[in-house]
């Protein structure tokens, strides 16, 4: 019975609201720029960096530093594991919403 | 733009996976017993107590201690604010799932 409830299928690394936002946005394109994420999720640079580190360390994202002209840029991409983890989270959330609506 | 992303509408008090589980189950009936929650969410008594305290302090749940025969029991009920907060969370999750599926 303990595995039945949809929230038991949630992983804190992915479920945390800002990390869930980062992964959702990263899943929508090949790569996404740090500043874009910061603005879209209304985060400070430090806070965003910390969450990105957690996701990179978990193998869910890659980070690449480079230049756009002379401006330094950080690009973030979702890994295959990241897509799988997000898919699992979204499936659990879908089940939770369905249970709530029933 | 910063308010557009569905995860920006999530509140950490409600979004945390175990608290989300507690609120979802509490919303399904008039009151729910501590041991039932513990088993359904696969939590230790200490961990469940800590999350219940956060939710009671936020005004989202009430806790009532009593007896079932000679056995002490703790009953948990969701408040009107709790239902509203859960509804807001579920709406944001629904938007997130829809965005992911689109």
TrEMBL record, chains A, B:
Organism domain of life: Bacteria
**Which molecular function GO terms apply here?**
DNA binding
What Pfam families does UniProt report for this protein, alphabetically?
Answer: HTH_34
- According to the entry, every stretch annotated as the Winged helix DNA-binding domain falls at 19-97
Its keywords, alphabetically, are: DNA-binding
- Which PANTHER family does this entry report, sorted A to Z? BSL7504 PROTEIN (PTHR37318:SF1)
| Designated name of the protein | Winged helix DNA-binding protein
């Amino acid at each position: 019975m303990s595995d039945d409830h949809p929230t038991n299928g949630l992983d804190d690394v992915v479920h945390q609201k800002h990390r869930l936002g980062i992964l959702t946005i990263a899943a929508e394109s090949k790569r996404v720029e740090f500043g874009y994420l910061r603005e879209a999720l209304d985060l400070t640079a430090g806070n965003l960096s910390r969450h990105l580190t957690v996701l990179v360390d978990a193998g869910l994202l890659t980070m690449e530093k480079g230049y756009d002209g002379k401006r330094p840029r950080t690009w973030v991409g979702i890994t295959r594991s990241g897509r799988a983890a997000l898919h699992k989270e979204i499936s659990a959330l879908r089940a939770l919403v369905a249970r709530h609506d029933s």
